[in-house]
Design goal:
single chain, eight-stranded antiparallel sheet, 18 helices, 34% helix, disordered N terminus
Length: 552
Amino acid sequence: MTTTATSGPGRVGPKRAVAGNRAVASSQSQIVTDTMLDVLGSGGNAIDAAIAGNLVQAVVQQDMTNHTGTVTALVHDAKTGEVVELDSMGRIVAGLPPFAPIPSGKGLYSAVPGTPRAVTPGFMPGMKALYERFATLPWARLCESAVHWATEGHVVTSFEHLVIAQTVDFFLYTESGRKHFAPGGHLPQAGDRWASQELAETMRNLSAEGPDYFITGKWAQDFVTRGNDLGWAVRLEHLTDNPPRWKAGHRWEHNGDIVVQQSAPERQGVFCQIVLGILKELDITSVGHWSENPESLYYLAHALRRAGQETGLLNDPELFGDTTGPLTSPALIKGFADILRNARAKADLTEHVKLTRGGPAMAASGAAKQPAGSCELAIVDEQGNWVQMMNTLQSGGIPGEVVGGIPMVGSHWLNALYSPMEGWIAEGGQMRSVLSNTMVLRDRKPWLSLGSPGNVHCTVPQVLSNILDFGMDPYAADDAPRCLPYEEDHTISVESRVAPEVPVGLAKLGVLTNPLPEYDYHMGTYQMAWRTEDGSLSTCTGPRREGVAGGI
């Protein structure tokens, strides 16, 4: 029997953890979670379920993802006991100048001049790599849900409509984008059944021909033709000359647990190790939680800022020296903590804040203006295989174009130290990003996995600290208020559910509190799975976005 969260399909708001006797799965979509549970219930393993979930997610959540973007994963193989990392981000084509066909100002995706840029797709090469290494069911079986929902159409949710409306200006610049997202001149409305016969035909061909349909087959050929027609000199062989990478992941110890995350050039593992290391040096649990204590929030926001600055020097070890070791050295982290401890104001600066910035009250709130994309999946099967996986519309394809019903965003890579995405036009190079896949091991086995879309660079360490430092249960750790890194003008943006004394105390330190919505969906919603002390499985999805967790 399948059980799911009682909050209802597609609902933003409070949810609950769900137990599973045999297996669990969590996603941002009722359709995706049901698909994964169906695969698990019919004998598939966690990787089978993840592939099927990814394929259908890119059909029913095109506000968040597509079949050309990036996929990454951490996979625990129960047979070997190993945790391996998959990176399948879209790739920069060596020798070709940056190609950005959408002018700036055409919506949130083109807010930065010169971006997004065309790159080769990463999604389907990642699906192929997963399938060939771990899958057990026939490929066509894993495509069934994607084919069905592309053909029949899915009911558009209010959240889906909201995000499309916020980002669609980017696609309305192109003829293929207008045809796909605004047939007849209007966006799909909440409650409409949205289907695409072009997408359905593409999914049927994918089912029949396998992932190579997107890599060397007819869709890939159409992709190259569209790029060439627009002026991008991509060739078919470019889609296979820099394949996905399997790696061991970045591993670090915290309070006796082993945390496994994406390794260089991905920033998240090093970022989290720096932040939690600084908080540990500052004895943050004795100070108090940042939702209730201004000093703790001050330290947290500064630790997030410092980690962001330092990981700007993290790049692909195939092209650069690897800075992972020096950036995570205990002496360096202790030095960061000592600086923060000694840099705090000794005088009461409340009057200064009031006279120059305004009152320190959590009065009004405003949502951040930024894209919302990406989808995270958490799956555990009864054999003990775990998958924590992301799929996203970011860093894949030709910006603004739709080929065979597949919309594409491209990549926002820039050459800048503090850019969350950086890449280099060089043979075999891999772009840097900030991705959230995380597993926590005890006795060499996973007991927790988590990940999320939405400001993952700063939210993953907060959720991890809530669980590993403050002992919160996973859902409470996700529900708790979150902040952005400390800003240069001495502002901390934080969800406005913090205690009243927090903004007052921060003002004494010379800091203005910028209130975000009580639950800001840009701060992500986590998909988590964990094993309880009695050995049973649980899973959840958070309150800031849609999502359904289920078990069998």
